[in-house]
Amino acid sequence: MNTSLLPFFQWCEATAIGHAIKASPWLFPLIEAVHLLGLATLGGSLLLLDLRMLGFGLRRSTISEVEREARPWLLGSIVVMMVTGTALFLSESVKCYYSQPFWVKITTIPVALLFSLTVRQRVARAGTSQPTGRSRGVAIVSLALWLTVAAAGRWIGFS
Amino acid sequence: MLRLIEWLAATHWSIALHESLYVYPLVESVHVLTLGLFVGLAVMLDLRLLGLALRRVPVSEVIARLLPWEKAGFTIMVITGGLLFYAIPVRTYQSVFFRAKVAMLLLAGLNVWVFHSRVERRIADWDVAPVPPRAARIAAIASLVLWAGIIVAGRMIAYNWFDCDIQPQPAFINWAAGCVLPPHELR
């Protein structure tokens, strides 16, 4: 943890949005609940393709078709997660600064995003109808990355 | 009923679970993360029933392929949810959010039953239709609304705004939560 980042986190918490959420008794819980609705949709759209790439789920559809069908919901739920997640962060930035799970989450997110939008998407679109060793590996890495993000996110609340 | 819940709260394992440093948060994390599996895949089926995703995949295929995962997800949800209740029985039992959640869970179950026994019986007529008939779409919307409500209510159980030990509360809240108030706090 770099101490020079602390002023930035303090600035985040002092923003109008951060203040407004902190001042309201129900705004944080409400945004948190929407964050969870996003989590469910994100989980569903990820699993649909990852299960297929492992050889489970919608086995009669090609991997590339499942990728195409899941993509809008994956991207949409990521947007919801980013917006609500940023709002939650702004209301307790300094707490996050001192939270180890927060740092795990915030460093895993770019890796998970990059992996999903590059390697995973490319392998899925290659369009095999049967899962290969490569597609299985990609699915496992995808699940592991997003599971880390979700578990670390839940753990911010316990610290 | 309250006496049974109070007995439950006094059992050794309930106290141990409540006071555990890691087991309770772990159980709660599994409960929350399984949302992605259980509700997530239910959402995908609902989107198919609305004609918003997987339009070229027969509905029966989506149901058959996702059902085992839904069963697994549901099992994890019930076990971890039961443990969470067992760890904090009295407060949870007297939570308006928990009661709302249980009511919505029953409605969601009813919705599945109606869909399965009525709408799905004629699935052969519309299995491959990109947009299923109205009855199926209504079931999908009911499912989405109920699961969203269940998630929101479930998250709110953690907040103590309407707890019985925080008084005064509106009479309606005390009634809905089943609070047992000492005489001087009765209004």
Summarize the structure.
Chain A is mostly helical. In chain A, 81% of the residues lie in helices and 0% in strands.
What does this structure look like?
The complex is a heterodimer of chains A (159) and B (187). By secondary structure, chain A is mainly alpha-helical. Chain A has one domain (3-156). Chain A has helices at 6-14, 16-23, 27-54, 63-91, 93-97, 100-125, 133-156. In chain A, helix 2 packs across helix 4 (63-91), helix 3 (27-54) packs antiparallel against helix 4 and helix 6 packs antiparallel against helix 7 (133-156). Chain A starts with 5 loop residues before the first helix and ends with a helix. The mean pLDDT of chain A is 94. Chain B starts with a helix and ends in a 10-residue tail after the last helix. Chain B has one domain (2-179). The model of chain B has no long low-confidence stretch (mean pLDDT 94). Chain B is elongated. In chain B, helix 3 packs antiparallel against helix 4 and helix 3 (23-49) packs antiparallel against helix 8 (134-156). The A-B interface holds A 25, 29, 32-33, 36-37, 39-48, 51, 56-61, 65, 69-70, 72-73, 147, 150-151, 154-155, 158 and B 25, 28-29, 32-33, 35-37, 39-44, 47, 53-57, 61-62, 65-66, 69, 147-148, 151-152, 155-156, 159, 161.
